[in-house]
Specification:
Helix content is 77%, strand content 0%. By secondary structure, it is mainly α. The chain has a domain at 24-113. Helix 3 (53-72) runs parallel beside helix 5. The model has no long low-confidence stretch (mean pLDDT 86).
């Protein structure tokens, strides 16, 4: 089975997108897991108002969903829009009741995804044939 240049380019773009975009979710989980003890040591008990266990699960699932969508979407503006929507939802859910957690979770939702998008584009440009590097 032979792929033409456009099909090969799209396959390379998706594969080089899925690899780095699979990293933000485990990083989020590890940062959340280790960050709880740091938060408790600096700010006391974590149960102020309502429990965030379900919210953190929802944020992790949304991060996984957005990571897959970002890997499949070809346009950079659409990718940045998806990341922005995720950060806005996180800010809406956390502020004003939990401002410190809001800053941390907004950071965890944006920075690893943006770095993964940059790495995916770099890998796409590295592995894609030169004649078809018009949209990495």
């Amino acid at each position: 089975m032979s792929l033409d240049a456009v099909s090969r380019y799209h396959l390379i773009r998706i594969i080089t997108g899925l690899v780095p975009l699979s990293l933000p979710a485990p990083l989020f989980y590890l940062a959340h897991f280790w960050g709880i003890s740091v938060y408790r040591s600096h700010f006391g008990s974590i149960a102020k108002g309502f429990g965030l266990g379900i919210m953190v699960e929802l944020l992790l699932q949304l991060l996984i969903l957005v990571s897959v969508l970002v890997a499949l979407v070809p346009k950079l503006k659409a990718k940045l829009g998806l990341v922005g929507a995720l950060v806005l939802f996180t800010a809406w859910a956390m502020f004003p009741d939990h401002p410190i957690r809001g800053y941390i979770y907004c950071f965890l939702m944006s920075v690893p995804l943006l770095l993964a998008i940059w790495l995916a584009q770099w890998l796409c440009r590295l592995f894609a044939p030169q004649e078809s590097v018009h949209g990495c």
